[in-house]
Design a protein that fits this description.
The chain is α+β, with helices and mostly antiparallel strands and 185 residues long. It has four helices and nine strands. It folds into two domains: 31-120, Immunoglobulin-like, CATH 2.60.40; 127-172, no CATH class.
Length: 185
């Protein structure tokens, strides 16, 4: 008989210990806007002066947010985009150092926040010693030099006129000889 009340008390104590943990983990009814998340940055690696796309879904559908980073030229203003959450574009500063930068997004209509990272890299592209002969661009200077060396200059038309004059004189002499030949015989 004594075991029943003891069992009942032990079960009640276990229930009291187990119940507060889930209740403490559950958010209060009015705090459903207090969320944290991540910012999707595309591309995540970019050169200075480039533009990135930012996506975030912690603010809720149809809301607004602002994003910032030390790499951005200005504050990124998020706007609703489809069912994926909020979207913004940001330009990377042209003088941004090559390293990783944090991105912070704060929801305007709620307490939602999101963070992310992006990496700025510098492309050290060597310029060619001589332009590639692929047309346009760097080949224009080579084409100009080549035209000066090989194209028709002043001497070409002069030679052409001299040859035309010689041919005209030869034709005139030949036709004058033909006319004199049959008449003089």
């Amino acid at each position: 008989m004594r075991s029943t009340p003891l069992t009942f008390c032990a079960a009640a104590a276990a229930a009291l210990i187990a119940v507060p943990a889930p209740v403490a983990l559950a958010a209060p009814a009015g705090d459903e806007d207090r969320r944290t998340g991540t910012v999707s940055v595309t591309p995540s690696t970019i050169a200075p002066g480039g533009q990135v796309e930012l996506w975030v879904d912690v603010c809720g559908k149809g809301r607004r947010a602002k994003g910032n980073s030390d790499a951005f030229t200005s504050v990124a203003h998020f706007r609703p985009a489809d069912d994926k959450g909020l979207f913004a574009e940001a330009r990377i500063r042209s003088d941004a150092e090559p390293r990783s930068y944090d991105v912070w997004v704060t929801c305007e209509d709620s307490d939602g926040k999101a963070t992310g990272t992006l990496t700025v890299i510098h492309h050290n592209r060597p310029s060619p010693a001589a332009p590639v002969k692929a047309g346009g661009g760097g080949t224009a200077t080579l084409a100009e030099r080549s035209a000066e060396d090989q194209g028709p200059g002043t001497r070409h038309p002069v030679i052409g006129l001299v040859l035309a004059a010689v041919a005209a004189v030869a034709v005139a002499l030949r036709s004058s000889r033909r006319r004199r030949g049959p008449a003089g015989s």
